[in-house]
Fold these 2 entries.
Entry 1:
Amino acid sequence: MIVRVGNQVIGDLAVNSATYSDYELIYSGPAGTFDLRVEFTNDYLANGEDRNLRVDSIQVDDCL
C-alpha cells in the first residue's frame, strides 16, 4: 500500500493481514489543500486467491 499526499509518497507499507489493522504514518508538510491517495499495489487474482484492500477509515490529526 502506498500513501501519498499530493505527489509525495509518505508511506510504502506491506499489508499482509487478513483482518482490519491500524497503520500509522507521520507527515509534516506545508499548509494548504492536498489530495490524500491510498494505492493498493499488491493486487492479485489467480488460482483461487483474491487479494483486496479495504480501507475502513482515515484519521488526519492537525498538530501545529
Entry 2:
Amino acid sequence: MMKFALCAVALSAVAGAANAQVAIEEIARINIAQVRFQEWNGALNPSYIGFRPSAIAFDGGRLFVAGFSNGTGQPLGIVEVTNVNNTGAFNGAFSNTFGVRNTNSNLGYSGLYLRGNTLAYAYDQNSTPATNSVGVYDVSNVGVSTAAVTWQQNQRGGSGVAINSAGNVVHSVVSSNFVRQWNGATGAGIWSASGNAPTITVNTSGVTFGNNFYRDIDVDPATGRVFQRYSSGIAAWDLNTVNNAATPTNAAFAIPNGVVNNIGQNLAVAGNAPITGSFVIYNNRSNAGVGQAFGSNFQVITTSGASLTLTMNLLSAITLTNDGYFDFSYDYSTRRLAVLDSSNGFIHIFQVPTPAAGALFGMAGVFAARRRR
C-alpha cells in the first residue's frame, strides 16, 4: 500500500505524539461513475442521480449517495451502493433511483444521514419555503422495491442533515445560526409550540463566525454534541436536554479558515475513534477550481478544536485531480469512514485503525506526511 503525503514529513517523527495523529487505511475504492449518466450501455440508466454525486450516508454495511445538478430541470435522486462490503478497487453496483425530483441549476441534495432503515435527507431548491425538502425515507425495501416516504417538511435543505442521539432529525438553516429539529419517527416539530418552524438559536457568544453560510451538520454519537460546518469554520455545541426547548449550552469554538461561501464544504464526526478519541474531519474548499490533489484540502481536529495530523494509507496512488468538493460519513460501530470525491465519482472507504494498527504506522522507516493547521 501507499502512504499518502500531504506534506513531506516522516511519520516516525510524530509517532510519540499519538494524540496528535489520525491514521486511516483505505480498504475500498468504489467507482460510482455510472450514476452520473442518464444513459448507460446504450439504455436509460435506472440508477441515474444527477450530473455529479453530492452527498453520502454510510453505516458500515450500507451506503447511499445522492446527486446534484448542472442544469435547470435535470432529474436528481438517491441510490444505494449495493456492493459496498467488497474490498479493494471495484465498480459500484446500484439500486434503482428513488427520491427523484427536478431542480434549478447547481442545486440538489446537500446531505444524507443513515440510521438503521431511516435515511434522512436535505434537498436544496434555493427557495423558502421549499416543498418536501427535508424528510425521511424508510429504506428497508430498497433493492426489492423502492424507498417509502416516512415524512417530509417544507423547509429548505441547503445545509446537510443529521440524526441526533434522541433519534430526531436536525438540519441547519443556510444563512443563520438556527437549527431545526424534527421528531425522527413522525416529523413533528420540536423546539416550537406551534411545530410549524421549530428553531433553536445557537449561542454564539464569544465565537467569531465571519460570514455565516452553513453548509453541513453532524452529531457525535458518543456524546450527542452537534457540529456545524459554516463558511469560515466549525461550530460545536451541546443541547440543553433538560427542557429541550431552551438555548443550547456550550457553543464551544470556531475554527477559522477564511470566509469561503462555496458549496461542497462538509464534515463528519468520527465518534470514539481509536488512539485519538472522537475527531472531526472536514474539507476547506477555499479553491473551487480543478487541479487539486486528493486530500489536499482535508483538515482534522479534536472535538475541542485542537489541530490533529492526518495520515492516509492508500490502496494505490490517486492521480486524478479534483475541484475540492467532498463529503464524509463515519460509522461509529465499524469505525469506518466513507469519503466522496464528487469531482471524479469515487467513494473511498477508510478503516480508522485499531490502537495496535496505529502503532504500526509509527514504525521507523515508514514515510508519510502530515498537515498542521
